[in-house]
Amino acid sequence: MALAFAEEVHYIHFMNTAKLRPDLTVIASLIAPGSLVLDIGCGCGELLQHLAEHKQVEGRGIDLNQQKVGQAIARGLSVIQGDADEDLAYYPDKAYDYVISSQTLQAMKHPKEVLTQMVRVGKYAIVSVPNFGHWRNRLYLGLKGKMPMSETLSYPWYETPNIHFCTLADFIALCEEMRLTIEERHGVGGEGGSWKFRGHSIYANLMAEEGVFLLQG
Predict the structure, then answer these.
(1) Which residue of 150, 156, 168, 183 shows the fewest CB atoms closer than 10 Å?
(2) pLDDT in tens, 91-150
(3) pTM for this structure?
């Protein structure tokens, strides 16, 4: 079994996560310098600030939380309060080089429609999602019979903003159904390590706590 898993991993690398969340570090590595970026669910602007400082990116952000929007504006970032479930429809085609959704797609009311709008508005879309299929979640549910809680799924079931749980296999299947091209796919571990994988990787779906995907419509 271990050999079968190893064959599915394209390469493994570990990155400095001192400043960014592990999935954001992977996302930042996928973005070309000088790009125009829209960050959906940008929070207080951590990723946008990093991209502006290290990749000279011109960034825009949108977030539901007014307090976080205020914090991002205080950083000097161009961020507005808005709802991606509704507002993305008003953005013109290919207005951005990259449209990013980091750990927010599963909290959308209509994730498939948001994804459709992302690949329309951006030349590329980058999505990170928590992996409900991680082995610890499977073990937790199997042994305790309760909804799992972990670092990436840190809310009890009655308070979680995540209304559409999925595994990496689920997300890949959705992209195939929508005929989206997955240019790159990365598994992200809890220790900050990440690896690039191909196809329907059993290893990634079992071992990754999060997945990061570079998509093109």
Answers:
(1) 156
(2) 999 999 999 999 999 888 999 999 999 999 999 999 999 999 988 878 877 877 777 666
(3) 0.87
Altogether, the residues listed in the chain come to a count of 217
On the 0-12 / 13-18 / 19+ scale of CB atoms within 10 A, 136 is middle
* DSSP conformation class of 153: S
- Rounded distance, CA 74 to CA 49, Å? 11
pLDDT of 133-163, one tens digit each? Answer: 988 878 877 877 777 666 666 666 566 666 7
Structure tokens at 103: 């750990």
φ/ψ of residue 74, rounded to 5: -65, -25
Q: Which CATH superfamily is domain 2-216 in?
A: Vaccinia Virus protein VP39 (3.40.50.150)
Residue 181, pLDDT above cutoff 90: yes
Residues 11-24 pLDDT 10s: 445 444 447 899 99
Distance CA 51, CA 38 (A): 11
The closest alpha carbon to 175, from 107, 122, 123, 125, belongs to 125
Burial label, 9 (beta-carbon count in 10 A; 0-12, 13-18, 19+): middle
DSSP element (H, E) containing 6: helix 2-8
